[in-house]
Amino acid sequence: MRNKVIFIAAIIGLLTGMVSAYIFGIEKKPPPPAFNPASNPYAKGFYTNGIIESCQNSGENINIYPEVPGTITQIPVAEGESVEKGTPLLVMDDSVQRATVEQLKSQAEAALALLEELKAQPRKENLEIADAQVQLAGASLKSAQDQLDKQRKSYEIDPRSVSKDVLDGAENAAKVARANFEVIRKQYELTKVGAWIYDIRNQKKQYNALLKASMASNSLLAKYTIRAPIDGAILSINAAIGSYISPQGAYGTYTGDFNPVLVMGSSQTHIGVRCYIDEILISRLPQASQMHAQMLIRGTNVSIPLEYVRVQPYVSPKIELSSQKTERVDVRVLPVIFKFEKPKNIDVYPGQLVDVYIQEVEKETKSTVTPQ
Questions:
Q1: Which of 14, 60, 229, 357 is buried deepest, with most CB atoms within 10 A?
Q2: Does residue 330 form part of some domain?
């Protein structure tokens, strides 16, 4: 009985193995591709990577950094929005700077008021007081002189009528009155002339210095509001209300480095494509008038012809597409910029990577003979 059970189990195992071998041996058909892979549209052309960006006459997308540090209080625009030049894009807390502006403005106004006061001298009321003091000093001088004359006349008639001490006292009193009169008269002339020209010049310079400091502080206040430098579209906002930003940019939570606070692009009908040509392929580039290229959007079967714009004539290390600061191998590339009209049947965005094929020109090879 036991042998019979073992025999049946062996038969079942054998059948299971044969069925499994048959099932796993059936060749499975691969699923159809989601899209046709990019193919070279030219009989002789080479491939390169490209990145979509806004179409600029020079440079790349506009990276906006604040000129002053601060905390964001308002962001009146949204990503994808088209704005005109001068439109406020971001507002930072400017309470401290605004108070500084008001302080310097008040100081400049006080300096101006003092300058106008100096220019308005002599004041009528001060001149009247000085004139009255001159008249009072003149009256005192006349009284002292009259008293001296009487003492002298009496002494001349009868020396015994006036003592020598009384006569000397009258003479001294007259001299003091005359000196006092001269001082008050000169003070009147000084008051009548007005402020000294050097005092006016010094006060004017102080006013100009405070005025310029106020203007500089007011210009700095304007930098707490970032405005659009051109007519264009907002591509990216890398900060939120309440975030602290500095001239280094905004700290990226996911990247761990500093990024531009805003990125803008032009709002034209064309879009730019920046391609990086490996240095070993530079010699195979055609002339500008013969430049033909096509862009293939990844994930689709869409192919778009490109229009040549310019070449940036500087070969640099290939770090643009990978964002790597260092390279193990020094691979250098030449930036070539194309443009194309915005397609209506598919959306493309700045920063998107695309495949680009550039038609290669055939060049005649010349042999070089080295003299023996």
A1: 357
A2: yes
Residues 261 and 277 in one domain: no
Of 68, 55, 64, give the one whose Cα is nearest residue 89: 64
CA 238/CA 261 separation, integer angstroms: 5
- Residue 89 shares a structural domain with residue 231: yes
pTM: 0.66
Cis peptide before 335 (omega within 30 of 0): no
State the residue range of the domain holding 88. 62-93+224-265
More confident residue, 1 or 366: 1
Rounded Cα distance between 267 and 108, Å, is: 44
Tell whether 4 is covered by a domain.
Answer: no
Residue 258's domain is classified under what CATH number? Answer: 2.40.50.100
For the stretch 46-58, pLDDT in tens is 889 899 988 887 7
- Model confidence at 328, pLDDT cuts 50, 70, 90, reads low
The amino acid occupying position 258 is F
pLDDT digits (tens, 9 = 90+) for 301-318: 888 999 999 998 889 887
Chain position carrying tokens 């009384």: 166
Among residues 339, 259, 348, 242, which one has the least CA distance to residue 300?
Answer: 348
Phi-psi category of residue 50: left, alpha or beta, with phi > 0 → left and psi -120 to 50 → alpha: beta
Residues 141-196 have pLDDT tens digits of: 889 898 888 888 888 888 778 788 888 888 899 899 999 999 999 988 888 888 88
Amino acid at 230: I
Q: Are residues 260 and 304 in the same domain?
A: no
Residue 260 shares a structural domain with residue 298 = no
| 348/301 same-domain check | yes
Same domain? For 49 and 71 the reply is no
Residue matched to tokens 């709002």 = 267
Structure tokens at 155: 């002494």
Instruction: List helix spans (H) across 194-286.
Output: 197-222
Inside any domain, residue 32: no
Q: At what angle do helices 124-157 and 164-193 cross, to 10 degrees?
A: 160
Residue 96 main-chain phi, psi, to 5 deg: -65, -45
Which among 352, 349, 260 is positioned nearest to 80, based on CA atoms?
349
Asked if 263 and 232 count as a contact pair (C-beta separation under 8 A), the reply is: no
Task: Decide which of 216, 236, 265 is a domain's last residue.
Answer: 265
pLDDT level of residue 371 (50, 70, 90 thresholds): very low
